[in-house]
Amino acid sequence: NAARTMLYNIHDLTWDNELLEIFDIPPAILPEVKNSSGLFGETASAIFDRHVPITGIAGDQQAALFGQQCLTPGMVKNTYGTGCFLVMNTGNKPVASQNRLLTTLAWVLDGKPTYALEGSVFIAGAAVQWLRDGLGLINHSRDIEALAQTVTDNGGIYFVPALTGLGAPHWDPHARGLIVGLNRSTTAGHFARAALEAIAYQTCDVLHAMTADAGIKANELRVDGGASENSLLMQFQADLSGLKVVRPRIRETTALGAAFLAGLAVGFWNNFDELGCLWQKDIEFTPQPNPAILEQYRNNWAKAIQRAKDLT
């Protein structure tokens, strides 16, 4: 049930009595669940020379969503790391996913919940690591962009990095990675470009599922994480999704979101407007789509994904 996460009922904002009964867990032993921004306790005196209040708490991706200042329904962030983690703000009511995404709490402030949809891509930056460590095509992960730029397109190559199965929205643990479209003109540059494009394709698969579930059209995608530094990838992401891709000046948005929540609790900042002034855009990638080519790309990606699922 999407309303129950780890024994907690995200609709009622209480521990779920039915689940507690099933697992024979006495409610009295469970901790009090507090707002995301509030006083949780203080550090021990042995750590600092004074007791420091602990006033902000959130999961990694929820904190990144808050750090990216995705505060209104339809705003989406994607963290590009070893995998990709997309989260969309869906407002004050939970959206039950029909497309195999996770319905979750984004945060609770002043007793008022904000909900989100979350989708995880298993292999993103890890695909680049595999090209580095497994195939030896590059010496450092950062070299992938220059190698990919040695060619002008993917040369008909599609790489489905289902090296550990496929995550959202496919959820197929039996799928296996594959590279299709090889010919005698294929170069290492085509492999590199296909690996970067695979990250964007997988991101768009989750984005489409999110917008279908939420019934909200996203206007932009806010990005962070190590692979967001790759401008070739970010431009392709913008072209493929049709969304502005916005990279902030501060990339460590998980830590930033936790700091924002903590600062609100102690009055360092008073409201969302003050936080909004702190978030600053670094670069915005504007879609420059070629509809005919992108349609061909999407169709070929869909065929490649299906073949990966057939490899059991």
Protein model, in words:
This protein has 9 helices and 14 strands. With 312 residues, the protein is of the alpha+beta class. The strands form 4 sheets. It has a 7-stranded mixed beta sheet with strand order 8-9-7-6-12-13-14, sandwiched between helices. It has a 3-stranded antiparallel beta sheet with strand order 1-2-3. Strands 4-5 form a two-stranded antiparallel ribbon. It is globular, with a radius of gyration of 21 Å. 41% of the residues are buried.
Quick overview:
This protein has 312 residues and is of the alpha+beta class. The chain has nine helices and 14 strands.
Query: What's the total count of β strands?
Result: 14
Shape: globular
Q: Give the terminus-to-terminus CA distance.
A: 29 Å
Written as H for each helix and E for each strand, in order along the chain, the element string is: EEEHEEHEEEEHHEEHEHEHHEH
Residue runs with pLDDT of under 50 for 5 or more positions: none
Taken as a percent bin, the fraction of beta residues is: 15-25%
* SS element count, helices: 9
The oligomeric state is single chain
Please write out the topology.
Elements: E1 4-5, E2 8-9, E3 14-15, H1 17-22, E4 37-42, E5 53-56, H2 60-67, E6 76-80, E7 84-91, E8 102-109, E9 112-121, H3 125-133, H4 144-148, E10 158-160, E11 178-180, H5 188-214, E12 220-224, H6 231-241, E13 244-248, H7 253-265, H8 272-278, E14 281-285, H9 291-310
Parallel strand pairs: 6-12, 12-13
Antiparallel strand pairs: 1-2, 2-3, 4-5, 6-7, 7-9, 8-9, 10-11, 13-14
Helix pairs in contact: 2-7, 3-5, 5-6
Question: Top keywords for this entry?
Answer:
312 residues; alpha+beta; 9 helices
